[in-house]
Amino acid sequence: MFEDSIIYGFDYLHKKDKIIIPEINPVTIFYSNALMSHRKLIDFRENLYNNSPTLKNQKKPIDTSLFANFFQLASNCLINLQSTLESFANRLIPENYPFIDKNGDSFEPSIFHKLDTALPKIKNIRFKSKYKRDNKRIRDLIELRNDLIHLEPIKEDMMVKYKDFYRRMLKFDYTQAISSVEKYVNFYEPNLIESCSCGKEFYYNIYEKSID
User: Fold this and answer.
1) Contact, 11 vs 20, CB < 8 A?
2) CA 145 to chain centre
3) Is-contact 103 153, C-beta < 8 A?
4) How many degrees, rounded to 5, is the angle at CA 80 between CA 67 and CA 199?
5) Distance between CA 51 and CA 66 in Å, rounded?
6) C-beta of residue 148 within 8 angstroms of C-beta of residue 78
7) Tens of pLDDT along 167-205?
8) What is the pTM of this model?
């Protein structure tokens, strides 16, 4: 128990002791994971830009770790941001919520359906109506993450197999995507994600500077 809140927990048998563990909302953990990746991936991307050879200057040595470092954390950021959204939607949508199409048949909803249709109906407010640009960023994030998970090589190209996708990863605005995900979550559950060390759930110091 805290001064203004209660966090439930569970017991876990470790050797001969039952330890008590607080059940932290996974939404906040996934979001914090994305932030921890974001802090470094921006530096890695700049390092890649600054230290890679160019067509005009090919004397710089090839360092494969430059892109690998960026790609590793960029992937972590994308996956955790989508996990933030999907775990959030699954938490708020009742287990018996009817996913029924126009023919009256049940269907397995996509994450887009959960975020754009189910939650707005349940909460009777629509994020897309107020934050169209942020909603577009969230859709772009999910599409990029899905392509990452199901990544396939370009079969027509005999030499460079992933260039189009890698270019999208480099171009993507991770900072704005993080901001849009935070807006979405707090739109339907105010103050779930806070930029302060309140001790209520899980906290990680997010930004050096605020995001517009």
Assistant:
1) yes
2) 9
3) no
4) 120
5) 8
6) yes
7) 999 999 999 999 999 999 999 999 899 875 554 444 444
8) 0.86
